[in-house]
Amino acid sequence: QVQLVESGGGSVQAGGSLRLSCVASGSIYNYYYMGWYRQAPGKEREVVACIAIVAGRPYYADSVKGRFTISQENAKDTLNLQMNSLKPEDTAMYYCAATYAAADYCYRASFNFWGQGTQVTVSS
What we know:
By secondary structure, the chain is mostly beta strands. It has strands at 4-7, 10-13, 18-24, 33-39, 46-52, 56-60, 68-73, 78-83, 92-99, 113-114, 118-123.
């Protein structure tokens, strides 16, 4: 059974930083893509960042480019999201996702495994 467990969310002031982690129940090399999504109240879920586990090639949403960094710790079966210069509009529930399926780009992949989410709240 695939399990993705997120941690690292919390409340920070604008300009602050948080680091989210997602631990997979098995090797992250089992997955073709992994990524981070977020959903704010009243809004649709959106991709924040994603990556091809073997090939690398990270993708970032325009809204987070230059502020967020996705990375993987293969030995720990962990996917991280370093979030710097946080803004109030980054406030959302953040979800880790994974898929076995390939696609031309990770943000077009069909992610079928999801974590329970971790809340990020940024105050102004």
